[in-house]
Design goal:
mainly alpha
């Protein structure tokens, strides 16, 4: 199943580390061991700011994309952007004491990456959630439905990979396209980080 293969590939690359990037748990440990931060909220805010700046650097993502091997063909910089986002979300989960090998944590990480569409995806899978999408909302969800949610996230990402106008713009106008693409990636990364901060809040 292409959709499941894609999301598992993104999670594995992001959580385990890719190229020069450390794993999500190693990244979290760096922040947790830094005594300059008064609390975990400050750690997470700093983490989001730093990862967002990486997503703004179009060249960084393109270089990283060259190291990324996904089971489904998607534009390299887009796949790299998702992997960086997955790593950031995983680190946020780790900072809040969550285990990124746990199925619910992995599903929440994917839901953060699809942003506002997350609640819609969960409903589409037949899961009723309240106003807040977080660990509590997925507590009673059986494994088979978590897989269904992951699959639906994969379909969303595949659709995005096929219809992203920014990618076409980058092909036509390399310099301007790179700037536009970087801005969009940074905005998306910040939004994903903010969602993850809410989802994994204690």
């Amino acid at each position: 199943m292409k959709a499941l293969d894609l999301v598992n590939g993104i999670l594995d690359a992001g959580l385990n580390g890719l190229g020069p990037l450390k794993s999500a748990s190693e990244l979290a440990d760096e922040y947790l061991s830094d005594s300059r931060y008064p609390d975990n909220d400050a750690r997470i805010n700093s983490l989001i700011n730093w990862e967002t700046s990486k997503n703004f650097t179009s060249g960084f993502l393109t270089g990283l994309g060259g190291l990324l091997t996904l089971p489904v063909a998607v534009p390299a910089s887009l796949g790299a952007s998702w992997a960086v986002q997955a790593r950031m979300v995983g680190a946020i989960a780790n900072i809040q004491g969550r285990d990124t090998t746990e199925d619910r944590v992995r599903t929440l990480a994917l839901l953060a990456i699809v942003g506002d569409a997350g609640k819609e995806v969960v409903k589409q899978a037949g899961v009723q959630v309240g106003n807040k999408l977080g660990m509590k909302a997925l507590e009673a969800v059986p494994g088979r439905l978590l897989i269904e949610i992951n699959k639906l996230v994969g379909f969303r990402l595949l659709t995005k990979a096929g219809t992203t106008g920014v990618i076409n713009l980058i092909k036509v106008v390399p310099v301007a396209g790179g700037l536009v693409g970087g801005t969009v990636d940074a905005f998306a990364c910040r939004k994903v980080g903010a969602l993850a901060r809410e989802m994994f809040a204690p």
